[in-house]
Amino acid sequence: MSTTTVKTPPPVDGPPAGTAPAAKGPRRGERSRAGALTSHGILGVASLIALFPIAWLIYLSLGPDKDDYLHPGGIWGKMTFDNYTFVLQHTPFFDWLWSTLVVSLGTTVIGVLVAATTGYAVSRMRFPGYRKFMWVLLVTQMFPVAVLMVPMYEILSELQLIDNYFGLILVYCSTAVPYCAWLLKGYFDTIPFEIDEAGRVDGLSPFGTFARLILPLAKPGLAVAAFYSFITAFGEVAFASTFMLSDTKYTFAVGLQSFVSEHDAQRNLMAATAVLVAIPVSAFFYLVQKNLVTGLTAGGTKG
Amino acid sequence: MTVVIDRATGKRRGGRAPRPGPLQRLKHAYRKYWYAYAMTAPVVVVLGVLVLYPLLRGIYLTFTDATSLNSARTIGVNHIDATYEFIGLDNYADILWGPTAYDRFWSHFLWTIVWTALCVLLHYVIGLGLALLLNQKLKGRTFYRLILVLPWAVPTFVTVFGWRFMLADGGIINSMLDAVHLPSPLWLEDTFWQRTAAIMVNTWCGVPFMMVSLLGGLQSIDPVLYEAAEMDGANAWQRFRNVTLPGLQSVSSTVVLLGIIWTFNQFAIIFLLFGDTAPDAQILVTWAYQLGFGQQPRDYAQSAAYGVLLLSILIVFTSVYRRWLARNEQQLAI
Question: Looking at this predicted complex, what is its ipTM?
Answer without folding.
Answer: 0.82
